[in-house]
Amino acid sequence: MTPSVFSRIVAREIPAAIVHEDEHTIAFMDAGQVNPGHVIVATRRQVETILDLDDELAGAVFRTAARVARAVQAAFAPQGITVLQANHAAGWQTVPHFHLHVLPRHEGDGVELVWPRKDPGLPALHALAERIREADRA
């Protein structure tokens, strides 16, 4: 796998404003700040998507994200915080390295996410849930 830009930050080949790092994760300011305080939380080891995380690494990333979110709240007092994670191009992933965006939010900040609700009904939801349970057992 070609080293991602985030792997290069971990290796200190590319400069970054690092907020936090530990054995499993690194958190740094997003160079393309959507709002002041926008932080990327990434795995130190390059794995591409959430599908590639083991339980230990998944827990570590979300612990770091919660820690960073609390610090962002204290430092910037945003009206809200969005934590966003994307997988593969169809899911909006642009860097092939697992990461979360911790994004401070304010009313009218221009950040949008279109969520076209489908409302399939409870019987269809039960059928979809069963497919997931079956896949989880496999």
TrEMBL record:
Gene3D superfamilies from the UniProt entry: HIT-like
Recorded GO MF terms: catalytic activity
Active-site residues, Swiss-Prot/TrEMBL: 99 (tele-amp-histidine intermediate)
InterPro entries: Histidine_triad_CS, Histidine_triad_HIT, HIT-like, HIT-like_sf
Listed PROSITE patterns: HIT_1, HIT_2
Motif Histidine triad motif per record, residues: 97-101
GO biological process terms on file: nucleotide metabolic process
Domain HIT: start-end pairs: 5-112
Official protein name in the record: Histidine triad (HIT) family protein
Source organism: Quisquiliibacterium transsilvanicum
Lineage: Bacteria, Pseudomonadati, Pseudomonadota, Betaproteobacteria, Burkholderiales
